[in-house]
Amino acid sequence: MAQENPREKLWELIKDIRFAMITHRHEDGSLHACPMTTANREGMNEDKHLYFLLGKDSDLSRCLQHSSDINISYADPDKDSYVSISAKASVSDDLAIKEKFYGPMAKAWFPDGPNDPNLQILIARVDFAEYWDVKENKLVQLFKMAKSAVTGERPEGMGEHREIRL
């Protein structure tokens, strides 16, 4: 059996999830989270980066000046797929990157296009990811949990849980 590429597996799990929650350390030390849309269209590049369009005037942008550690969470409850990513964030004003990831939906936030003075790119370098991916249908899951409740034994085969170091 061929060894699965961790970067490709991670992309397969998150590619169809429209929104991610990015958790960051606020200036007061508390943790804050905000919803963001992943800008990558073709997958993660060899450098293991995820990209997000970010406003320079946003709370997240200000907080990244103090701490670059972020967590990116994805959830697809319909598929019982959940991903948590630890990453280092940086921001870029590179016009070529902005042009690559700017799309029609971004116009609502950045009306002047890739040249919008408020637009920057959040680059998240993925270091570690953890995922939970359940393949059984809801009825099978419910049966296994009910059996576990009756027997007192932990349910088995409730899906795949893995950690990925990139």
TrEMBL record:
Gene3D superfamilies: Electron Transport, Fmn-binding Protein, Chain A. Pfam families: Pyrid_ox_like. InterPro entries: Split_barrel_FMN-bd, Stress-Dev_Protein, YdaG_split_barrel_FMN-bd. Residues 7-156 form the General stress protein FMN-binding split barrel domain. PANTHER family: PROTEIN BLI-3 (PTHR34818:SF1). This is Pyridoxamine 5'-phosphate oxidase family protein.
